[in-house]
Amino acid sequence: MATASNAPRPYCGRFAPSPSGPLHLGSLATALGSYFDAKTHAGLWLLRIEDIDPPREQVGASELILTALAAHGLISSEPTVWQHQHTEHYQSICNSFLALKLAFYCECSRQQQDHRGRCVNDCQSRALSPNGHNLRVQLPTTDLDFTDRIHGPITAPIESFDNAIIWRKNGLPSYLLAVVADDIAAGITHVVRGEDLLHDTHRQIALYRLLNAAPPRYAHLPLVTHADGHKLSKQTGAAPIDPTCASMNIRQALSWLRPDWDLPEPDASLDELLAFGLEHWSLPE
Ligand SMILES: [Zn+2]
Q1: Cα-to-centroid distance, 15 and ligand 1 (Å)
Q2: pLDDT tens across 29-39, in order?
Q3: CA of 55 to the centre of ligand 1 (A)
Q4: pTM score
Q5: Residue 93 falls within a domain, yes or no?
Q6: Cα distance between residue 210 and residue 140, in whole Å
Q7: How many angstroms is it from 87 CA to the middle of ligand 1?
């Protein structure tokens, strides 16, 4: 008989925007993909605001994102999680890595570190002080391959990510640490997100290994792009979506997610479009 720990965990997915600006069509499409996948698995769909980088945040963006998602019928199964409330948890993970001598302070500047973002000056052997230095963790380099539900098998690069910043010298946790720590804490089993994060996934899996946690199943959705092919993002000036035009926005997002779908009539309501998406959504398991 299988023990409880061997039993498959119930599906738990999430959408985790950073509040660097309001929701645009690209982030709506990603939210919708993760929502459909959770709901078609009768799973939970959680919202997490990744507000760990105040200098890059836009005042009021979190509220705009949550209001816009709600206007599109995308409601979290549980209260919204805010990463800024988890600082102590991230810090305690760093402390445990330090105690195990798996973490070290590094003085390499962004310009000095190599193209994979690694320490290049053997800072680990020099036992530097915390002052003004990034904290890095030594990552495992094996067993990092994974099979993406959309892209298929993804092999880890031969030149591995053997260390990465987990706490930055400006006093803030890194995205890598926060995203993995929070997905583990929330029991996330499935991550459906944009394919710009596909090649950061090996580093995240390495951190899961270090934390003795099972990585989730991943699906990386195609990115919504501008006409010139560049990713639609806050940085490339993507226009915020107008929450008062929810059905039109959902229709556009559906067209991006599934160009092959024959969408309902143009006058279809928001509820009809969401129901259509739920009925037709499928990704390889
Ligand atoms: Zn270094």
Answers
A1: 33
A2: 999 999 999 99
A3: 24
A4: 0.91
A5: yes
A6: 7
A7: 24
